[in-house]
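Most newcomers find our protein records easier to grasp once they have seen one. Sequence and backbone structure share a record, each on its own labelled line. To make this concrete, we reproduce a full record directly below:
***
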Amino acid sequence: MKVIILIKSILAILFFLCLLDMPYGYYEFVRFLAFAGFGYLAYKANQVEKSEQVFIYIALALLFQPFYKIALGRELWNIVDVVVGVGLLISIFIKYRK
């Protein structure tokens, strides 16, 4: 469980840092880490049979995958980064508040 919290927290921080003016290599690095992180989260969600979470994590892994760039434009990517980052943080607090 702590690994999942750590992955979600790191990804959220990385997405929020994408709002700053960073070198292009940083964005590629974030895409690679997001792809790996969401892939791991999908795997763990599949182990506990949370099919809706598996679908969401696979969709996010495909969105952020580093192999084929999806051109959304800087403004739209900023919105995606904020929405996904906030969603990850909310998922931590909802899941572990119970």
Observations:
- The two ends are 14 Å apart (CA to CA).
